[in-house]
Amino acid sequence: MKINTALLALAVGAFAIGVTEFSPMGMLPYIADNLDVSIPSVGAIVIIYALGVMIGAPVMTLILVKYRPKYALIFLMSIFAVGNLLSAMSPDLVTLSLSRFVTSLNHGAFFGIGAIVAASVVPPSKQASAIAAMFMGLTIASIGGVPLITKLTQVIGWRQAFYLISVLGFVTIISLVLALPKHLTGKSVNVQEELRILRKPQVMLGMLSTVLGASAMFTLYTYVTPMLMVFINASDQMVTLMLMIIGIGLTVGNYLGGLFADKSLYGSLFAFFAMLALSMAIFPIIGTTPIGAGIGLAFWSIFSFSIVPPLQILVMKAATGAQALASSVNIGAFNLGNAIGAMIGASVLANGFSYAMVSYMGTVVALLGIFVLWIKVRQHSKQAALQQVACLSD
């Protein structure tokens, strides 16, 4: 089977970004102990990163979309490498949060421009699968990269872990230089027109679905390490194993999301959102033993990431004429959900509720996502009917 080197290079970039995005979930207790702050306070680095993605996605995309995608993506990965280097050198939580913000500025635009590149190097019928292939790097990071970084944090410290992530960024730059096609060109940007397209109800509802899906996921994911310590008195080794299980589940979910989105976009989204809600509702019940926690996290992680490829395609299809910007902003929407989920979890804990309530709140958010999808389907059906009537009248 011939390997698509462009997709492979994009997956390498996604892997690097996945490592830096998700590694703090396993680092929180250790950073908190080293900097002498509380775990909810360290959760700020997750929130700051997510907000940086949300801001950086439209700004960096509008700046870079006029350049060749290859050079734009190399520039974005350079920001990644420098940002992680600054994180490793941070003396306190404020500086660490600022360096995480710098790192995050590449994230949304990389995936947004990368998704356009991925979709352009395959036939139209394989676009969701191509985007899923790029995101596969993100999920593989969860299987191998994040557990490895967590283990390194436990053994040699979180600063050294960030140094290694920075090195990974430079390795990614080399892969982009070697593999991305040169023939793809940038495009002139009519900012007002592209922003007008983003304001279309169908696009905004799609992005709101992304926000809610990510919020549901990160309500639990942000605090999964301390949650496991409370539920099953998990050791460092057990936490690493559970993070690996999550990574495998995210990878499986990403693959299934791309596969079923190519067949039935809305049907797959409704099913995956429903199963995501159910998995978080039952996790506090079955997650009180190591085996139960492993099974619960496996199912939760599968359905958490199965929604990602179809949501990306959903927004891109609704935003014809501004797909690069919409794709990037949708990644920003995912990370806005990341921040909201982290804040929901922090609020639950700060008000004296248990970690079980954190998971239940994730269920509520996922159900809201289903409701928004239902509204979007109704609007889509109405628009299709109006267009059909207009065609008949002509």
Automatic annotation (TrEMBL):
Its main location: membrane. The chain crosses the membrane at residues 40-64, 71-89, 101-122, 129-149, 161-181, 202-223, 238-257, 269-287, 293-316, 328-349, 355-375. This is MFS transporter. Gene3D superfamilies: MFS general substrate transporter like domains (1.20.1250.20). One of its GO terms (cellular component) is plasma membrane. CDD domains: MFS_NepI_like (cd17324). PROSITE patterns: MFS. It is a multi-pass membrane protein. It comes from the Bacteria. Keywords: Cell membrane, Membrane, Transmembrane, Transmembrane helix. Residues 6-381 form the Major facilitator superfamily (MFS) profile domain. One of its GO terms (molecular function) is transmembrane transporter activity. Pfam families: MFS_1 (PF07690). Signal peptide: none annotated. It is found in: Cell membrane.
